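Ticket 4471: requesting a sanity check on a complex prediction with iron/sulfur cluster. Repro inputs:
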Amino acid sequence: MPWPALFQPTNLGPLRLKNRVVMAPMENHYATDDGLVTDRLIDYYTARAAGGVGLIIVELATVDSEVGSTGPGNLTLDDDRAIPGLRLLSSAIIEHGARALIQIGHTGSLGVPHPNRSLISPSVVHANPRAGRPAAREMTVTDINHCIRRFSDATARAVAAGFDGVEIHAAHGYLITQFLSSLSNHRTDEYGGSLANRARLLLELVAAMRQSAPSGFPIVCRLSASEFAPGGIVAEETEQVSQWLEQSGIAAIHVSGGSYAGKEPVSIAPMAIARGHLLGLARRIKQCVSVPVIAVGRLGTPEDAEAAVANGMADLVALGRALIADPEFVNKARDGVTAAIVPCIACNVGCLSKGVFAPNTVMHCTTNPQVGHEARSIPPTKRRRRVLIIGGGPAGIYSAVTAASRGHSVLLCEKEPELGGQLNLAVLPPHKEELRVWQRHLLHRLATSSVEARLNTPVTAAFVRGWRPDVMVLAAGAAPQRLDILGSQHGNVHMFDAVLRGAVQPAGRVVIIGGGDVACETADFILNQRTPIDSLVVVRRGSRIAQDMEPMTRALLLRRLRRNGVNLLPSAQYNEFRDEGLLITDPDGRKMLLRADCLIVATGVVPDRTLDESLGAMGIPLQRIGDCVSPRGFYEAVAEAFAVGCEL
Ligand SMILES: Cc1cc2nc3c(=O)[nH]c(=O)nc-3n(C[C@H](O)[C@H](O)[C@H](O)COP(=O)(O)O)c2cc1C
Ligand code: SF4
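Returned C-alpha cells:
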C-alpha cells in the first residue's frame, strides 16, 4: 500500500471508516433553487463515493432557507419535503462504499435573505460584505431558541434521511462563528462577553441535536480554529471550545480557519497560500482533545495527506477541491497511479469566482470540465476521423486527448520546441507551483494517450494537404501584445515574456506598462529575482489594477506588491517611451515623466490569427478554441477544448 497511514481504517464514533480521506463539504448549487436534491447532485456525490473516499460530508444544508442560506441552490434541511431526495443521496453514497454525513448550518449575516426578510446575527455590528445586502439585525433570545430548534429539527431530518451523522458548520464566519467571535458578537447577555457565553449557542445546539438523534449518532463540529483577524477568534479559544465540545459528546473536530467576512482568504486558500497551511492549527487541537481531528486546507496530494496523518497532525484529512478536480483521487492514490490524478491548481476560478460565488451559476472546475456531468460519459465516435490539432497549449492538448479517447486518429502539431503554450509563461512568476503540477499532468495525459504529438512543426497549407485531415482544430494560442507608441524601439524597452524567461534582467528604476494580471505577476517575478531594484512602478490605462484576476489571488498579489514598495498607478495614459523613461498623463491630466532604466511592456496577449485565413480557406472543417479566439483564462480554454473534443 503506497500510503499506509492514509489507508489505515479508523473509527468515527460508532462508524468504521475504510480510510482517512474525508470529502470536505462543498456547496455546488446542483440542488434545485429551493434546495432539494437533484439527480445531478446525486451523480456528483456518487462519483466521489465510488472514487474511494472513506467519509463524505455533504455540503452545507441550511436550517433556515429564508434567512440562513447562501441563496438559490443551497441545499436545505428546513423542511420535511427535503427528506425523500436526501434519502436517495445518502443511500447512493453509502451503497458506493463511503460513509455519509451532512453539514448543517446557518449563514447569519452572510446570507442571502428572501425578499422582505432581514438577516440575523448576534449583533448588528457584523456588516455584510456582500454588496447590496442589508445589515443583519440583532437576534433576540427568542430568535436564538428558534435557531436551536431549527438545528435540532434539521438533525432529526438528517436521521430520517438515512445519514450516518451530521456536521455543525461553526466555521468561516457563518452564524455560529459570529457568536464565537468577539469581532461580531457584542452582546451583553448570556450569549456574549466571555468565551463561555460566546460558545453557549454552539453547546446548546449540540445538546439539542443529541436529543433529536439516536444515542451515539455522530455529530462532528467544524470550527475556524483561528479567524486570522485582529480581535477575532484565536487558537487558544478554539482549544477551550474543542474541549467543551468533547465533553458535550461531539464525535470529531474538523479544523478549518478564517472567515468569508475577513481579509485573509484562508478558508478556501488560493495557490499563493502554502499547502497544508492550516495543519498547525489541527495539531494544536489534536493535542488537547482525544476525539478524532480532521485537518483540511490545501492537502490535495497523496503525499501531503499521508504526511498529515503519518506525522500525527490529524487523524483524518479532508480534501475539498482536490475531489472536485478528480473524483477518482483516492482510488488512483491507492493504486499508486498518482501521475494520473487530475490536480486541483487552487485557482478558485471554476468552482468559486465563475462557480458558486457568481450569481445564478453552479460549480465548475478549471482542470475537470466534467464536474457536474458525472453521468455523461464521453461517447466513443461512430466514425473514426483524422483530426489535426494545431497548437500544443492546454486547449490543444485537452482537445487532442479528448478526441483520441473517443477513438479518433489525432495528430497534434506545435511549432515551438516544447508543448505548453501560455502555460509555460504562466508557471514562471512566484506562487504558481500548482500550475507546474498541472503542466506535468497534461503532458502525462498526452504521453499516455494515442495522440501523435510533433514539436517544431509549423502547420502550413502544404502540410495540411499532405496529412489530409477530416477536421482541424485551431488552438494556436496567443502572443505577447506589442505596444505601438512613440519610442517603442528604444533599447531600454522590453517585452514581459523576455523578462519571465530570464533573457532580460531588469534593475534600477523599472516601469511596467499594463496593469492586468500579466503586468502584476511580472512585477512579482522581478521582486523575487533579488536583482537590485530602486523603484518599481506598474502603470495601467484602466481604473482597476488586475481587474480580471480571481479576487482572492488578486488581493494577495496586490498586497505583496504594495508591501514591497511597488507603486501601482491606475487610470494613466502612456504617451511615449524616452531614453530617460516613460511619458505618461496622470489621472488629473498632467503630463509627467516616469524615470526608468528599464521599461517593460506587459499589456497582455493577443490572439494568434496567423493561420486563420490560410487554413479557413482549405474547405476542411475548422474549429477554433482557446486564446486564439480571444485571450481568456485556462478555465475557458479547457472548457472549450473538452466541448470540441466531445463533438468531433
Ligand atoms: C466550491 C466550494 C464550496 C464550499 N462550500 C463549503 C460548505 O458548504 N461548507 C463548508 O464548511 N466549507 C465549504 N467550502 C470549503 C471547503 O470545505 C474546504 O474547507 C476548502 O475548500 C479548503 O479545502 P481544500 O484546500 O482541500 O479545497 C467550500 C469550498 C469550495 C471550493
Ligand atoms: S476550479 Fe480551480 S480551484 Fe476549483 S477545484 Fe478546479 S482547479 Fe481547483
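Notes from triage: Residues 321, 324-325, 344-351, 365-367 surround iron/sulfur cluster (ligand 2) (CB under 6 Å). Leaving this open until the requester confirms.
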